[in-house]
Design brief:
The chain is mostly helical. The chain has helices at 23-30, 55-72, 78-86, and strands spanning 12-14, 17-21. It has three helices and two strands. The chain has a two-stranded antiparallel ribbon. InterPro entries: GATA_TF (IPR051140), Znf_GATA (IPR000679), Znf_NHR/GATA (IPR013088). This is GATA-type domain-containing protein.
Length: 87
């Protein structure tokens, strides 16, 4: 189960077979919008710092995370500069 919720109006099919996702996660899975950052607000694993129940906010979180990881890769190589001044 994605969100570890135990009570739902309807269990839906997910990547692990039939009746493995709650109603909210199942609807998102079927539409291709089920991301690890998504959790229904009623989920016992919902943490506002890591999760959201809004698709727009989930996309913002994913963009922010990818931007932070990209910026970490853009650290300039100072060894090249040192070699230019030694010539």
């Amino acid at each position: 189960m994605h969100c570890e919720i135990t009570k739902t109006p309807q269990w839906r099919a997910g990547p692990m077979g039939p009746k493995t996702l709650c109603n909210a996660c199942g609807v998102r899975h079927k539409s291709g919008r089920l991301f690890p950052e998504y959790r229904p607000a009623a989920s016992p694993t919902f943490c506002p710092a890591v999760h959201s129940n809004s698709h727009k906010k989930v996309l913002e979180m994913r963009c922010k995370d990818s931007f932070e990881s990209d910026s970490a890769e853009l650290i300039p190589n100072t060894n090249v500069l040192a070699l230019e001044y030694n010539i």
